[in-house]
Amino acid sequence: SDAMTNARFEPIVGRYLSLEFEGRRYRVYFEEAGEGIPLICLHTAGADGRQYRGVLNDEAITRRFRVIAFDMPCHRKSSPPPGFERDDNRLSRDFYTAFVVAFADALSLHRPVVMGCSIGGRVVLNLAATHADRFRALIGLQASAHVAPYYDTDWLHHADVHGGEVCAGIVSGLVGPDAPSEHRWETLWHYMQGGPGVFKGDLHFYKVDGDLRERIATIDTRRCPLHLLTGEYDYSCSPAETEEVAAIVPGASCSIMPGLGHFPMSEDPDRFLEHLRPILATIAGLSRGEPSTS
Q1: What's the rounded Cα separation, in Å, for the pair 266 and 185?
Q2: pLDDT for residue 294 is more than 50
Q3: Residues 15, 20, 55, 77, CA torsion sign
């Protein structure tokens, strides 16, 4: 019928996982596409797994990878746990790290690859330092060991401002100038939809509790390869800060992506995929025992 010719299903399938974690029950939403090597994707602070729509829809990747993007608790479709109204909402390094591992275990994923952006990139560095043997490879997007606070986060959860709009306003300058308008605005829309105080709570990890400057020197890339990709137009995790991590971690690969900003996979998916596909090809080749092409 004519209606069918104008419509198509994307390959992405969404499901809920009931996860018991640290004595509480979490209802975790995740989306996946493809089959093969598991690739867990971690969203940025205050946003959600929709940021990885380009990766989930890329046939070249999903032929060899089972791409999985989950929403952290309180983000998008992952419900807060019972009693959340009494929580202080601040994301901690240890909770975040353990939750990623628990999610992988709950899905029985054998040595998955983990790719995270911003706070996800930071937690990837912590996974590299503390759980290297659990993962096949780690990919940090916009990954730095530390960020100096550069704005007043109190406005992100304040009775006098619209929470979603102020969150989007704060991050709008982090989107690269060449980003297609459609993707720029979808990226900002994800921020406009965040729950009260969630973005601010995530930034507790990014700006305070997740300072890994003392820890990254312990990362051993022989146990787990580490790949760093950072957009050139990011002043939250600058190219220099990513290069600093690479200089401290022997064997880490580091690439600065021209024209991209802080949300590469979401603000310009096509351009980002050109940088990601070769890294995933290297990872897939190594997993079959082939020599590395890099």
Answers
A1: 10
A2: no
A3: positive
